[in-house]
Structure formats: structure tokens, C-alpha cells
Amino acid sequence: METEVPNARIPALATFLQEHRSQAHRVLHHIIGLSRPFLLRSDLTDAIDDLCADDPALADTALARALHQCEEAAIDASWIYLALRRRVARWDYLRIHLEAMDLQQVSVGEYLGFKEHLATGGHEDPFGLEIDLAPFYRDQYKLKESSSIGRGVEFLNRRLSSRLFEEIGKGDQRLLSFLRMHSYRGQQLMLNDSIMSVAELRNALRQMLIPLRRRPTHTPYEDVAADLRSHGFEAGWGADVERIRDTMGLLLDILEAPSPRALEEFLGRVPMIFSIAILSPHGWLGQSNVLGRPDTGGQVVYILDQVRALEREMHRRLAEQGIDIEPRVIVLTRLIPEAEGTLCNQRLEPIAGTRNAAILRVPFRNEAGEEMQHWISRFRIWPYLERYALDAERDLLAELGGRPDLIIGNYSDGNLVASLMSQRLNVSQCNIAHALEKTKYLYSDLYWRDNEDRYHFSAQFTADLIAMNTADFIITSTYQEIAGTDDSVGQYESYARFTMPGLFRVVAGVDVYDPKFNIVSPGANEDIYFPYLDAERRLSHLQPEIEELIYGGERPGETRGMLAGRDKPLLFTMARLDRIKNLTGLVDWYGRSPALREQVDLVVVGGHVEAASSGDDEEREQIGIMHHLMGEHGLDGQVRWLGIHLEKQLAGELYRYIADRRGAFVQPALFEAFGLTVIEAMSCGVPTFATCFGGPQEIIEDGISGFHIDPNHGDASAETIAAFFRRCAEEPEYWSRLSDAALGRVEAHYTWRRYAERMMTLARVYGFWKYVTDLERAETRRYLEMLYGLQYRPLAAAMEG
Ligand code: UDP
Ligand code: LCN
Fold first, then answer.
1. Which residues of the chain have pLDDT under 50?
2. Is the CB of 440 under 6 A from ligand 1?
3. How much is the ipTM here?
């Protein structure tokens, strides 16, 4: 294993503490004076910046530099412990004795132990469970550069293709047996039994290429099928002679000297994926009237668009390889008998816009075997998942007539069920988080007990750890989701080391340098969210409805506020009324900013306007705050609050309506894991202002294809937006420049076409490597099974009782 170079800042810091004791004392004294046991990066940065304002020379000291690298400090009367993040996912833990100014490096376990000590008021458990996956890591398969994170498949191809015929030994023999194992419902594909060795394979390829070269390129497979079969080749090489020659040429190249690119290209063609199961158990997943619950939103939109794109891509690839098989995609979710007027109580629902994909619903059952009748929040579903996994597996196998070729989990619950099912069926597992709750809630790990009744993070984070480690590959929407930025911790990175006092301490939970991570960003449905200038596709019949929504009168129970005039551009936002979406924050900034109020009117589409119509505590609270703000700032003539849920077609046309009137979209969330609305708005050509915390930070290039705003600095955010509109008023082409750049950005990076193409390649490549190497790692699996049995199961069972 390559050892990390020591952090050069540490000796410099030790020297500084000894040689500039009074300066060091002043800084640490100031920090202790904040009187909090735990300080976050922002607290420490503010503290040091305050001190530097008085004493500018301080800025250039080792102590100030170290504190700027510090993600967290934990403090008691004698010690200050620091967690330094020197760069992406590389951490050092230190402690400084507050009197002696003595600096020591400590292990992650000691650091977490100190946090436990503080958080429990000295009642920590010295023999608590410590979870450590590091002994299972295999360093030869780890990335080294942070710039490679999220490009795991490229790394794996490079690393392993060079070894395929060397260290892995017998690589060519394995490749041969891999090619011989493909079949579909009894029909052999690729190779038949007459090719038994690699030498025979080489020979057969050379022999076969001779007659194929003489054939016209567009000769269909059927015309050469008999000849191919007699040489040992079955269907799967290509739909016509040109493609067959090409595929065979690629394999010959690989057998000669495997290059990563040829290997990926070749594997991308092997017919391996005929059916996919997509898991999203917690339910309320359907095609109409289902969005808008606290638990559903982007994930449902994502999955349905994903299915359409994947089915199309599977179909394309099979057709190119000359295989006449209808691919199947099944979305497994929960059947909810009390479906409140939706189709969530229907067992099978075909997915519109696909040839053969469907939602398959299987009910949750309790311990007594009775079906659960009502919707259950995603925070409370843990006791049902194990039984669900078995029931869903049975129904899936019956529906498909066999095993799927890939299982994709969604969110913590889907990923756990995907783990259970993949292992039982021996099928590759892909995880998609959508959002990891751990980073959304401050101290959700350390003070987990305080939130246990409401959120049950004990079960959720245990499930996350298990699923992240069993997955063959994980796809994420952005880089920051994995590893954050220079100054912020990634969502997955936050699972590397953490503690939940009284439950367990994790010293190595997941490694973001693992090549299982791949960034595959979603898109926005191009049939719905298309540019405002695409006049022919515009849904002009929806215009009157939109006019009425925005400028119409009061609609009891559905609206608050009537816009007094029509002369200003519109500032638009749309989200559920969750606290974290921060729509109330935006209304507050708007209310406080005369500059912004002068430039634009505000349209808010979110949730409900009547607290009584919402069944969610958090939403009711937000509704109350919103009414208060409307009154406090006197916004009824300038803000149109629509407490409704917009159907997609209407939402798409509304974004374009906003663009027609040279408006903008705002996504003001305190944190947004990815943010589909951001790419939807941009796909319609609407200049977009979005939170700098989470996915939008990466989606938007600040000042070029949109703007970042800091939800913690509302006044500054309001000013950024007001400045934009002022500049547009003076320089009208400025708006178009931003709009064009937003369109270009989405087209280049966020499309479902690219998504499906990548996903299908990844599924094949990881499937191949799993087969020819021992990437499956029996020892890790055993450890995780124990975690599941001894840790997860009792937590889930306790919730049911
Ligand atoms: N959405 C919608 N109508 C609404 C509110 C939201 O169609 O009234 C859609 C929105 O267009 C987006 C999804 O719900 O596709 C929300 O996804 P996002 O990723 O922005 O946030 P999430 O709700 O998943 O946190
Ligand atoms: C969940 C979220 O919170 C959003 O940020 C994502 O855009 C959505 O899922 C789709 O992945």
C-alpha cells in the first residue's frame, strides 16, 4: 500500500504553537469563548476571519491555515481536537493541549471517541462496536488521484486490462468462458460448444473473417448465420456483416493485447442485459397524481425518465447486435391498498412511452403476514423490507420468467433491498442514492438519539453502509455527491468516518477512492422541458391556464397573493414546502429587498396554502411561516403563491412562459442533493439561480450558465438576483447570453441519452470484471452479513414492535 505523504502543515503548526504561544493562546481562547463543544468549518472560518480583521499578520500563520482546513473542532476544558481535511477525502486528526500548547496527531478512532465523550457527557461506551472496512480494501484497485474519483470504470478498465493475461493468469480462459455463458431463454449467444480453447477461438475468428470480408457490408445476419454457427459463433456479433466483422476485429485486438478502450467497446456490444429490475420500495410511485408528498418528488421523476431511456438504449444495442429480443424493465415498488385515488393499489401499471416496461407493486406485510394498508413514511419502512425483498423477488421472477440481469436500487431502502436480492439471485447490483439523509441534517449521526423517534437514522445509516459496500457499482449525479469540493465534504465521504454514540463507531465505512463510483448524471425529459424558442413544440393551448394561474384572482384554498401589475419579469421557484427547500427563505429575502421587489414579481409554486390540507408536520410549519412572511413584508400584490402541484406538461410550459417574459428561476435550498428543477429550468432556457450547497454547485458554472446563491446569506443572494435584472434592463442581450449558456450546459452534460448509454456500458463492464476477477469479495460480504444480522435486523425489528 502506498502510504500517504504526511501533512506538511502539522510540523509547522507544532512549531508555531510552541514559538508563538501568546498568539496561539489568543486564537484558541477566542474559539473556546464561543462556548460550544463542537464547531463547524463555517464557525471556525468566521472566528479566524474576525481575529484576522484585528490582526492581519495572523492570516499568514500556520494556525490560521490549519483552521481554514479544519472541518470540525471538538473542545473540552483541556483539549481542542481538530479534524483537518487537507484535500478531498484525505483527513488528519490532531489535538492541542490548551495549556501546554502541545500538538499530537491522533487516530480517527481516538478522535471519534472524544466526540462520543463530549456528546454523551462522559457516558461513552469504551467497548462499543467499531466498524472498519479498511482491512478489506484492496489497494491495487484504489484510485489515487482525486480527479479520478467518479470515473471508476475507466480506471478499472485501464488497471485490469493490462493484467488480464498476466497476473490474473488464465485471463484469456476466463474471457472465453465469459463469452460462452451468454444465452437467452435457452438460446445460446456469442459462442457455442465447438470452441473450447482460446487458440480455437483465435483461429475461428481469423477463419470467419475471410468469408465475411467478401460479403457486402449490409448483408443481414440471417444470411451468414449458418456459416457463423458452423465456425462456432452464435447470434450476438452484429445485425449485419459490417458490425459482425467489427465486433470480431475488436475481440482479436483484445486477445492480442487488450486496450481499455477496445475492451469497453467490445463489452458494450456483448448481449448481456435483457432485463432490469429497478427498486424503489417505499412507494407512492406512479405516473399521475403522486408527486408532492414529502417522500416523493425527484426520485419518481428520475426513475420514470430513466426507464424510458434505458429501455430505448437496451433495444438499440440488442438490435445492433442482431438480436430480436424485447428487453424488459420492471420498477418494483410498494402496493398501497389505500391509494387515495391514485393507481398505487394496482399491481401492474405499464409505463407510458415505453414498449414493455411496467411498475410492479408488491405490498408490505407485517410480522403476522397482513398487508399494510396505508402509505408509510420512508423513515418508518425498515421493518418491512426483508419480507418485501422475498415477496418482491418471487413476483419479479414470475413476471420476468427468470432472473433480471441487473438490479438497480434507489434511495436507502431500495439499495438495501437491492443488496438482499442481488445476493440471493447472484445478479450485479447498482446503487443510486438520490439523497443521503446524513448530510442533510446537522449532527444526524452524533445526536441520532434525539431524532430517533421521528427519523430512525440508526436503521437508515446502517442500511446505507451495508448497501454501499455490497454494490458492484454506484452511480451518482455529480462529483460532489461522492467527494464534495475542496471546501465541503461529499455526501458519500461523510460515511467514511462517523460515530453514533451507543450504536457504533465507523472508522472506515466507505472509500470514495473505490472504483465502484461513477458519475452518470440524469437529464430532464426533452419532450417536456424543451427550449422556449422551439415555437413549433410549444403547448400554446396552455397559455390561458398559465395566465390565469399567475395573474388570475384569488382561488380559495389554492392561492395567496394577486400580482398587481404585469409589467415586471417574473422570478419563479417550484418545490415541495420542505424546510430544506427553503422557499420561505426566498420569500423572506425578497420581502426584505426593495431592489429586488422593484425589479421583479415572485411566483412560488409549492405545497399547499392551507396548513389543514397538509398531512406533514414540517410542511404545515412552513405554510405558517410563509403566511407570516406575506403579511409581515406586505407581499400580497407582488408575490403569487400557488399552493398546488403542477402537472409536468403545465410545469414545462410555465418555465417557458417565464423565459418569454425574460424572467429567472431560483432554487434557494439549504442543501440540494442534485436538483432536477435546476436542469429543467435550464433546459427551457430560463436563467437560473441555485444554492451553492449540493448538486447545483456543479451543474451551474457561476456567472456563465447561471448563478450560485448562498442560502445562508439571503441579502447577498437577493442582491445577486437584483443585479442580474438591473443589468438585463440596461443590456438586454445579457439575458439571452445566460439563457443560451444554460441550454448549452444541459445539452453537453445532462441528457438521458448520455445517461442510458453510460449506464448500459457500466453494467456490462462491471459484470465482466466481477466474473473474471474476484471483485465480489467473499470476505467483505461475510462481514456485511454480520452487520446486517447483528445490527440492522434488531434495529428494524424494534421499530415494528
Ligand atoms: N415537480 C412538479 N410539479 C410540482 C413540483 C415539483 O412536476 O408542482 C417536479 C419537478 O419538476 C421535479 C421534481 O418534481 O422534476 C422535483 O425534483 P427535485 O430533484 O428538484 O427535488 P426533490 O423533490 O427530489 O427533492
Ligand atoms: C432527490 C433529491 O433530493 C434531489 O436533489 C434529486 O434531484 C432527486 O432525488 C433525483 O435524483
1. 1-2
2. no
3. 0.99
